[in-house]
Amino acid sequence: MIINCENLNKYFGGELLLSNINFTVEDRDVIGLVGQNGCGKSTLLKIIMGYEGYDKTPDGKGKLGISNKIRIGFLAQNSGLESSNTIKDEMKRPFEKLLNTYKRMKELEKSMGISNGVNSKSSLSDEYAELSSYFEANDGYRIDVKISTVLNGMGFRDFDSNRVIDNLSGGEKTRLAMAKLLLEEPDLLILDEPTNHLDLDTLSWLEDYLKSYKGAIIIVSHDRYFLNKLCTKIFEIENKHLMIYKGNYSSYVVQKEMNLERQNKEYEIQQREIAKLEDYIAKNKVRASTANMAKSRQHMLDKIERIEKPITYVKPPKIVLEYDYEPTKDILTVEDCDLTVGEGANKKTLLDSFSLEVKRGEKVSIIGRNGIGKTSILRLILGINKHSKGSIEWANNVKKAYFEQENTSLDKHNTVIDEVHKRFPRMTDEQIRKVLGSVLLTGDDVFKQVGVLSGGERAKLCFAVLTLQRANVLILDEPTNHLDLMTKEVLEQALSEFKGTIILVSHDRYLLNRLSTRIIEVTESGVKSYKGNYDDYREQKLKEITKISENDNAQIKKMKQNTNQKQYRTKEQRAADVKRKQRIKELETEIESLECDISKLETEISTPDIAADYELCADKCRELEEKKQILDKRLEEWAEMG
């Protein structure tokens, strides 16, 4: 057991924030911590980290036991980074002890080579053997491989490792902090919103990496796809209490609904029993013949341990998306357009030739790494970004509505109600307040200036405007950013029920999975269309990668068969050629052996037994990666010598 928490309480400003919290964290647990904003999730993490204290119950109960043998790693913004360091130096800091060990081993090697004393050599040899054993046992020879793997996975493949951290952006520093934390390999990894600033490729890599993580993990995240892929338990903080659910996020949703139904039934049954007892007591306590029986019933009533009425209803927002008329079948046709951003000397071409067709009723999702031009594509088809070639044609009867990621179309100086009035001047205040109330902007909130609203409140205002526009084509740029889980689910339900056409940019894979009928992937080399939702896209991408690997192997074999015999004239040339041929033969033998090992490992990894064992599967995957890297080096050498 890593953590044991019993009867923990926490007061904040005199108000009870967390009440009677009980849980344990075991080795290899992956826990998703969920709850409404402000419920106390971050406070609980800070208590675990020791950044904040906790309170006991009035009778002195309450404790938090943390094993003194474990190391806890906590991800916060720019956590633990030395800004004056280079990326390379910072990534070596988790291995400082191992690197010092290696340095001492090299010193001993040199000393043993020049030492003449037998006893001296013996003592040096003993120290060297001890250090060498420690170095190997802690994967010292794989430090560079580990650093490279994590940096590549976290999106730093193309970064200069000598770049100073202070020159990185805020998002890049956060990703680097996570990379460093992963390399430290703490026994308990605490991640607070780890998916922020990550594109889809990095998210997928991080999920795969964490699946095989050898410690325990606690994750606070609004990314339900992420929670679904990783979690073995869900901890929910609601109404000051913590409830524990086994399984992933989807399992938690089902269990919570079943628990609420059971609690409601138990409450109703008890209320009926109480009502009967109270009725009997009221009718019989004044009659002499039945007073004793009434008194007995009163004792029964007093002994009943009252079940609290379950709080089952938190008013959700209401989003209904409708339109007035159908457009024609071919909604949008984009042909051979260039996609550029910036002006003058800062002008940059993202795509030289972009084409896209969208049919009526399709829900098309555009994905790709950060900065590739997804938002620019939406602005291009809307006519906001200009193009110098190609054509963009919208169908007849198309009415478009655009949800901007940063909500820049809102006037920050307007009040909420005036912002809607500006767009729909014929609406009365009462009508507008009704629409705003449906997205939970009520009371004095409608008189707030737009500029002081939170990100979630601004998004809700935009959804209110969206419902009033009654568009048959919705163009949405990251619509679930800043939303709590409840509002996300309401929005997803509304979008799923929408009968019109949707063109969407999003990193929310849960939304992409639930909504998409087609995925458009944008890369540096162009765009490619995949039918189906996000899971279908991933399956098709895996097949593509497998096919490329098979083609590469076939090409290698063909290169071997077509190796030309070279002519030579001098003795030196003949000797060099004999040596070269000998090395080629050695390389070919090693290449064949490596290919055999790789094929065997790939077969083993695909078997159900190994796939189900995360730790064994991770070891096999690491071994496979190492074999592939060695194979690449040998092939490169073989090609140069051929």
Can you walk me through this structure?
The chain is of the alpha/beta class and 642 residues long. Among the domains are: 82-184, Rossmann fold (3-Layer(aba) Sandwich); 263-303; 330-399 and 470-537, Rossmann fold (3-Layer(aba) Sandwich); 563-641. It has helices at residues 41-49, 87-92, 96-114, 118-137, 143-153, 170-184, 200-211, 224-230, 249-284, 291-303, 374-381, 416-423, 429-438, 455-469, 485-497, 509-515, 534-561, 571-606, 608-612, 614-641; strands at 3-12, 15-25, 30-34, 63-66, 72-75, 188-192, 216-220, 233-238, 241-246, 330-341, 348-359, 363-367, 391-394, 400-403, 473-477, 501-505, 518-523, 526-531. A six-stranded mixed beta sheet has the order 5-6-7-3-8-9, with helices on both faces. Helix 3 runs antiparallel to helix 4 (118-137). The longest helix has 36 residues, at 249-284. The protein is globular. Residues 563-569 have low confidence and may be disordered.
- Which descriptor suits the 3D outline? globular
The percent of residues in helical segments reads: 40-55%
Low-confidence stretches: 563-569
Oligomer: single chain
**Class by alpha and beta content:** alpha/beta
Q: Overall pLDDT, averaged?
A: 86
CA-to-CA gap between the ends? 58 Å
Number of helices: 20
CATH level-two architecture of the domain at 330-399 and 470-537: 3-Layer(aba) Sandwich
Number of β-strand runs: 18
Q: What's the CATH C level of the domain at 330-399 and 470-537? A: Alpha Beta
CATH homology superfamily of the domain at 330-399 and 470-537: P-loop containing nucleotide triphosphate hydrolases
The major β-sheet equals:
6 strands, mixed
Strand order of the largest sheet: 5-6-7-3-8-9
Q: What is the fold named in CATH at topology level of the domain at 330-399 and 470-537?
A: Rossmann fold
| Strand composition percent | 15-25%
Q: How big is the Rg?
A: 32 Å
